[in-house]
Each structure stands twice: as C-alpha cells, then as structure tokens.
Write a structure and sequence with these properties.
The protein is an alpha/beta fold and about 400 residues long. The chain is about 35% helix and about 25% strand. A hairpin with a 5-residue loop joins strand 9 and strand 10. Bound molecules: flavin-adenine dinucleotide. Flavin-adenine dinucleotide binds next to helix 1, strand 2 and helix 9.
C-alpha cells in the first residue's frame, strides 16, 4: 500500500459537526484534497454533552487528540435521582465502570468536541460556510456539485455528514420518513441558570412519560436542561424553532421539581435543540460516488449513548477504506459498509433495549423501579459495577479498528 494513496483525489463533505471534520481529518492524512460545506455561517457551538466510549476513544487517541478531549471534558461525578423536593433517592457514580458506565469517563460538549476535531485539520481542509449542496450530478466518472451560493465544482467523491435529517441522503434515496425509526420519545436541550448550584453532578427527576435532567456545565456557572417525553411521531417542521419551543412548553407544563423554572428560560436560552429519539435504517449507505457517514447514515439515537462514538469510528473506517481502495470509489464505499454494519447493528440495538426505555418510564411503577435499580447500582461494590452494564461495555469495545497506519503519515 502506498503512503497517501488518495493524493490527487478530491472529496466534498457536507456537514461540519462531528462526523464531517473527523472524516476530513483522516482523508487529508491519506493525501486527499478535502472540502467541507456547512450550511451554518460558522462552526456551530452548543448542543448537549456527548460520550466518548470504547473504540471511539481509541479513534481520538489515533488522531492524537485524546489529551485535548480529556482537558475539555465536562467533569461529572455521577447522576443523582431526586424527588420533587430535590431530595436524593439514589446515585450512580462515574467511577467503577471502566470509563464506560451510564455516565462515561469522557463526556464533552458537542460544540467543544467539534471544535477540537475541526482545529486539528482546519489549515489543511477547505471549509465553505454558509452554503449547501443544491444538486448533485454523478456521471460515474465524478460528481458535479451545484451549490446554493457558489459556482459548481467537480469532486471524485461526495459524502453526506449532515445529520439525522440529512439532505444528501434525501438526494440519494428520497424523503426521510421510510428510513427513520421513531423510538417513542422526544428530547430537548437548552442552557439554563444553575439555580440548584449543582457541582459536577447531574440530577434526574422523573414522572410517568417524562423526565428532566439538570447538570452543571461551564465550571458550574451554568446548567444544561434535558427534557424527555414519550409521544408518537409528531407532524412538525423540525427547522421551526419557535414551533418546537412551543411543543416543549406544552409537554413540560405542570411538571414538578425545577420544571417551571427551566421552562421559563426557554425563551432566552442561547441554544435550544429539539428532536425525536430516532434511528436511521438504510438498505445502503451509498449510491455511485456519493456516500453517507454519522447520523446521516446510521443514527443510533442518543438513547444508545454512542452518537459521537459511531460518528468518529465511521469517519475513520470510511476514510481508511476509501484509501485502501484508492482509484475504486465504489469498492471503498462498499467495503466501509461491510466492515462497519454488523457492529452498528449492535449499537442500534442498545438504543432500543430495555435499559434505554428507563430514560422515561411510562408508569409510576416504572419510575419507582428505575429508582430501585439505581439504588442497587449505588450499593454494589465498585468491582461488581461493570457487570451491571456489561452489554453496553461489550458494545462500546466490540469493534476491532482496522489498522490503516500504512496509508498515511503518523502524526507528530
Ligand atoms: C448545533 C448542534 C446541536 C446538537 N445538539 C444535540 C443535542 O442537544 N442532543 C442530541 O442528542 N444531539 C444533538 N446534536 C446531534 C449530535 O451532534 C449528533 O447526533 C452526533 O454527534 C452525530 O454527529 P454528526 O456529525 O453525524 O451529525 P450532526 O451533529 O447532526 O451534524 C450535522 C451537521 O451538518 C450540518 N448540515 C445539516 N444539513 C446541511 C446541509 N444541507 N448542508 C450543509 N450542512 C448541513 C449541520 O449544520 C451540522 O453541522 C446536535 C447537533 C448540532 C449540529
């Protein structure tokens, strides 16, 4: 295998969040000339706290970014279940799960994660902010990309890393509805005041069919609210922020604990995110010279606890397989899918299992059962705790990363 086998080939990536910049990093390492188009006017900040688990951590180590990620993480000692007067009912500590428990050892803001990966290759990658792909013409020899704002350009490969509602996927396979598997609930995240004065801890309060988590961020000066509620698929425009804020206001109304206080801050919050817990299930992750990575291809939903991990691993494998099959794009895309699919099926399963449903139990009995289970966790000797989350730890570490080190220069 030659070093930098993709030298001379051009790749366009749509989306600059987690999967996009990670893919750009690796493709540049293998010699490709990489362009990323992002619809936002600049790299997007904000978002929830994501977990770096198992093989995801190994990919970040391979990028030489693990220590930077550790330094930027949002330190959390654990998750406390509370009643409506904020009295502690049970506590899950972080330690004792080999870094991959319900709260992972490396939990980091999505914006911070994205920025670290972006910075690592920003000088070597062309970023086109404030634009999108309008049309793709794949001739078989290359793809002519028509942008909304810029002149058309030709690329050897185009990859959609544009998230759960991927427009690139829409161009390949049509409207998203048949490919989205709704998991029965919705989640909203927004930044609020740290009125409870939480210190490196998350508090969870539950009622039948809805849960609210508050956790301290920004060195305990602020807090992140995560509100989850169970509901069948809603018919709404996910781009309409005012509408989604109103949906959340109506579902959180009448809830106890801190709910009315954090709901009152929806109006003013600098960042508000709302989406369904959904998975993307596609028969194929590519067509011709156009492929998909991250949530666009195989979103497992935040309920799996592996959203960022599978985006990072997918980007690593996609770049590696394109490089390994340099000169034959369809063989590279097919191999990427063959290598990754079995593991991703197991990650998606995690997002659908009984443990995931514990996020928002449907009945008062379910809420009480969750408290009892967490109580049990708390009182287990630390050496036994990994056994309680064995299926998750097995999945987090259940993929053997292919070795592509011969394809590109080793980082300094
Ligand atoms: C600002 C932001 C906040 C988020 N907050 C949360 C959260 O609070 N909770 C949660 O569970 N998940 C959240 N997510 C999703 C989470 O980041 C992903 O589930 C996961 O990290 C996988 O990342 P990804 O790179 O595949 O997709 P995403 O992180 O979804 O990134 C997709 C990127 O593509 C861009 N994009 C979308 N459409 C186009 C287009 N047509 N042309 C060009 N660019 C496009 C988006 O602006 C975004 O930067 C958020 C994502 C973003 C971008």
């Amino acid at each position: 295998m030659s070093n930098e086998p993709l030298r001379g080939s051009s790749v366009l990536i749509s989306g600059a969040s987690v999967a996009g910049p990670a893919l750009a990093f690796w493709l540049h390492r293998y010699g490709a000339s990489v362009t990323v188009v992002e619809m936002a006017p600049a790299l997007r900040s904000g978002g929830q706290i994501v977990d770096l688990r198992g093989v995801g951590r190994e990919v970040v180590r391979g990028m030489g970014l693990l220590e930077q990620m550790r330094a930027a993480r949002t330190p959390t000692d654990g998750l406390r279940l509370v009643d409506e007067r904020n009295r502690s009912r049970a506590f899950v500590p972080v330690e004792g799960f080999r870094g991959d428990g319900p709260i992972a050892e490396i939990e980091i803001g999505r914006g911070a994660l994205s920025e670290i990966i972006y910075d690592a290759a920003a000088d070597d990658v062309e970023y086109l902010f404030g634009d999108r792909i309008a049309r793709l013409d794949d001739s078989g020899e290359g793809v002519v990309v028509h942008f909304e704002q810029r002149e058309p350009r030709r690329f050897d490969v185009v990859i959609g890393a544009d998230g759960l509602h991927s427009a690139t996927r829409g161009k390949l396979f049509g409207p998203e509805q048949p490919f989205l598997r709704h998991l029965g609930s919705y989640v909203a995240w927004w930044t609020v005041d740290n009125d409870l004065q939480l210190r490196y801890v998350a508090h969870l309060y539950g009622e039948p069919g809805r849960s609210l988590v508050l956790r301290s961020t920004e060195r305990n000066t602020r807090a992140l609210a995560a509100f989850t509620f169970n509901e069948r698929p809603l018919n709404y425009d996910y781009r309409d922020t005012e509408l989604t804020k109103n949906i959340v206001r109506s579902r959180i109304a009448g809830m106890g604990w801190e709910a009315s206080r954090v709901a009152a801050q929806i109006e003013e919050t600098p960042d508000f995110y709302f989406d369904s817990f959904s998975q993307v299930v596609l028969g194929s992750w590519s067509k011709g010279r156009v492929g998909l990575v991250g949530d666009a291809a195989y979103c497992a939903s935040p309920l799996s606890g592996h959203g960022a991990t599978i985006s990072l691993v997918g980007a690593y494998v996609l770049a590696g397989e394109l490089a390994r099959h340099a000169g034959d794009v369809s063989a590279g895309l097919a191999s990427y899918e063959r290598v990754l699919r079995p593991w991703l099926a197991s990650v998606q399963e995690l997002g659908r299992d009984e443990g995931a449903k514990m996020m928002t139990p449907e009945s008062a009995l379910g809420v009480a059962a969750r408290t009892r289970l967490v109580h049990l966790f708390e009182h287990l000797p630390a050496r036994l705790r990994p056994f309680m989350v064995r299926p998750q730890i097995r999945v987090s570490n259940g993929f053997v990363l292919p070795d592509y080190s011969a394809l590109g220069p080793i980082p300094a």
